[in-house]
Q: What sequence folds into this?
């Protein structure tokens, strides 16, 4: 037993404040009370186990979804201390589980680095669960305590002796708090896979015991021997690699531990994902700043030394060095300072310099030792710079001098009368026929219609200047009123003059319509991600069927609804007629309004990014050149597609 392990006891558990506010304002602590917040509860418990693993005390973490959508998380770490807390005069286990911001993460001797400290903690999970049970295997004994809505039902009990060690936390989310209480195994699997890549050598498993689960009692294991190198290969499995193997960088500077894997591919997008203490910093921060600075500086210095840029007649910038780059930047920081409770941006100023030095040194060695790969990378940079230069003029054509002037709007746009973007909606409609029905059926005060001609350009496989030269994409930019591109960032999006806060993709309810949805979403994800992040993108849900009896019309969105309506109205023998809509253009304006456009009766699906990393992988798979993974994905998800008979 190590010295640190021996010292990890009740004295290390420090109390900062109480727990009462959590149940009153849960969204303040877990982000929201829908699906995202529900799954966040699991992450908080797993993060505690991961922190034990970071210290070298835990090697296996099991997550189980039980009947009734309860969760059980088991680890083989040291176990939560159960001895008497010197200040609280009760078991340290009870302190950890019932008091917000109480834990060993505040004591520097217990954990060198941790992600859990800056989360809401297991006490918050306890507060938002109608029942929680904790079993601790520690010092040869088994301890247990149960809770209801965060309050202990009894004092910590000693159940017996054991030769095991670790902690088992079982909880049932409170259905009076959460609007969604059904766990999605695929969401949990994505996070566990991510943690396995970020912490090589740690074994995580997921098992779904629910009777209605597709993979009932099937254990999915996540384990990576090579960590970030395996991670990069997973992310880029559907892209054509430019260099044979990822570049791997590992180092430590001023107490900051850095691990990076990067790979160049033939795509035209940048996909850099950053982590601090296993927390996905989706807004980046100082570690990402240091990486980008070092990448640009080191590659440019090498290219200049090799005189590879001598024939270039214009400057290259940071964007050019990151086109076709997939990278994972993972930093371990003892005392991270995150901006905001959501922990999406690292603020420690000292991290940027440390990352810069480590990356510059290791990447410089790599370029010198791998001249063939270095030339391929620099050639890719030159190609990106050339394309960006060509794209500048095409991009400038998209910009509109005065967004309030109708003369600058696309000719096919039927604009609305209202000027407040918060009130205005823009429907992106497939084809002139559907566009005509939408224009006639809309509310002209706040609904605008932009018909699109067929399937727009697949931006996943197009260079930037081709994107800006596309007539349909130019029309989208112009109608929205946004501006794009600066000298520093050619894809920077300025939403200050955005004209609509609801952009609704409205296509036919068939396979072709779904394909067009995906093409448009790929464009927004690659070139207007901020629109998705701000919650401005929606997908309309037009009906598939109209079931009619006499003058009464009913609508169905799937086959089950159609059959139910047909049976309720008496079937064919009672003169019930069923019409299958092959496209929006088959609906008259009144029907389109009543089913798909009227805010009082329509259903809109808001597009959000649960996991940008997984979204990037799926878009590259669906819209890239590699056919087998796409075919496999479609076969696995075919039950979600509306296929014409």
A:
């Amino acid at each position: 037993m190590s010295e640190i392990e021996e010292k990890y006891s009740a004295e290390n558990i420090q109390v900062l404040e109480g727990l009462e506010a959590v149940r009153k304002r849960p969204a303040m602590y877990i982000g929201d009370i829908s699906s995202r917040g529900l799954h966040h509860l699991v992450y908080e418990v797993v993060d505690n186990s991961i922190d034990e693993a970071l210290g070298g005390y835990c090697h296996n973490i099991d997550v189980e979804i039980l009947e009734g959508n309860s969760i059980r998380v088991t680890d083989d770490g040291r176990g939560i201390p159960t001895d008497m807390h010197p200040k609280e005069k009760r078991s340290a286990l009870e302190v950890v589980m019932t008091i917000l911001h109480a834990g060993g993460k505040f004591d520097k001797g217990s954990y060198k680095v941790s992600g859990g400290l800056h989360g809401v903690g297991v006490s918050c999970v306890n507060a938002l669960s109608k029942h929680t049970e904790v079993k601790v295997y520690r010092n040869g004994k088994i301890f247990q305590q149960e809770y209801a809505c965060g309050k202990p039902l009894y004092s910590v009990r000693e159940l017996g002796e054991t030769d095991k060690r670790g902690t088992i936390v079982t909880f049932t989310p409170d259905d009076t708090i959460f609007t969604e209480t059904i766990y999605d195994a695929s969401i949990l699997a994505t996070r566990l896979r991510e943690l396995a890549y970020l912490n090589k050598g740690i074994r995580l498993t997921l098992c779904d015991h629910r009777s209605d689960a597709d993979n009932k009692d099937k254990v999915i294991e996540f384990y990576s021997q090579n960590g970030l190198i395996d991670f990069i290969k997973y992310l880029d499995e559907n892209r054509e690699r430019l260099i044979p193997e990822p570049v791997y960088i590992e180092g430590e500077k001023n107490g900051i531990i850095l691990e990076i894997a990067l790979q160049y591919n033939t795509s035209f997008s940048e996909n850099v994902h950053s982590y601090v203490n296993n927390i996905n910093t989706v807004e980046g921060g100082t570690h990402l700043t240091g990486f980008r600075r070092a990448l640009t500086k080191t590659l440019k210095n090498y290219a200049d030394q090799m005189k590879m840029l001598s024939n270039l007649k214009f400057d290259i910038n940071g964007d050019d060095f990151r086109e076709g780059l997939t990278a994972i930047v993972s930093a371990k920081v003892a005392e991270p300072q995150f901006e905001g409770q959501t922990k999406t941006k690292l603020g420690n100023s000292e991290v940027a310099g440390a990352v810069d030095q480590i990356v510059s040194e290791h990447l410089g060695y790599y370029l010198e030792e791998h001249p063939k790969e270095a030339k391929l990378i620099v050639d890719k940079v030159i190609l990106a710079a050339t394309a960006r230069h060509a794209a500048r003029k095409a991009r400038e054509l998209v910009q509109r001098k005065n967004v309030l002037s109708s003369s600058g709007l696309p000719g096919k746009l039927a604009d609305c009368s209202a000027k407040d973007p918060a009130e205005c909606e823009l429907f992106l409609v497939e084809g002139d026929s559907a566009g005509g029905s939408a224009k006639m059926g809309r509310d002209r005060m706040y609904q605008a219609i932009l018909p699109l001609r067929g399937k727009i350009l697949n931006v996943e496989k197009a260079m930037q200047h081709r994107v800006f030269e596309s007539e349909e994409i130019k029309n989208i930019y112009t109608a929205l009123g946004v501006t794009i591109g600066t000298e520093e960032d050619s894809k920077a999006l300025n939403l200050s003059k955005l004209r609509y806060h609801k952009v609704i993709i409205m296509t036919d309810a068939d396979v072709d319509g779904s394909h067009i949805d995906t093409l448009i979403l790929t464009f927004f994800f690659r070139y207007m991600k901020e629109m998705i992040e701000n919650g401005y993108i929606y997908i309309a849900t037009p009906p598939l069927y109209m079931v009619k009896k006499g003058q009464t019309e009913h609508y169905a969105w799937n086959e089950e609804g159609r059959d139910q309506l047909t049976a309720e109205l008496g079937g064919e023998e009672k003169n019930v007629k069923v019409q299958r809509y092959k496209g929006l253009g088959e609906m008259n304006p009144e029907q389109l309004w009543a089913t798909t456009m009227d805010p009082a009766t329509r259903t809109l699906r808001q597009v959000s990014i649960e996991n940008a990393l997984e979204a990037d992988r799926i878009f590259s798979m669906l819209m890239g050149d590699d056919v087998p993974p796409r075919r496999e994905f479609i076969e696995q998800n075919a039950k979600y597609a509306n296929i014409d008979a």
Notes: The longest helix spans residues 371-398. The first strand starts at residue 60 and ends at 66.
